[in-house]
Request: fold
Amino acid sequence: MNHNEPYSDNYIQAILTSVKTIAMVGASPDKTKFSYGVLRVLHETGYDMIPINPRPGLEDIRGMKVYPDLASIDRPVDMVEVFRKSEDLYGIAEQAIAIGAKVLWGQIGVINHDAARLAEDAGLKVVMNRCPKIELFRPFWKPKLHLGI
Reply:
């Protein structure tokens, strides 16, 4: 897939309607951080969110157990969402493949074409430089507006 071209609405919709469990690498307990807001909205929308943060002593974010890395997760993961630097995406792609994830999603500004190729060659769908929180409210999606924000 050419990740320099816009993703089709159907591609994004298929991902967001099929995944249930999302591991967020780079999740933050800081309410002022963008990753916290995305974690909150995705969780409140109904996704099973798994925060990933190696900070010693950090046990939970919003009542969700925090894991130090993807390999420590004790259940299947559909999507790995990445809030890290672009150069970190390749190693995270390797980990996502190892745990059997189906999707690798790089947040806005997270772009690494080698990581995308690696993940796609292993059968994962890849999205880069996009935010699932934003994508949830595009025209193809029926937002769950009854949920409190």
Notes: The longest helix spans residues 34-45. The chain has one domain: 9-135.
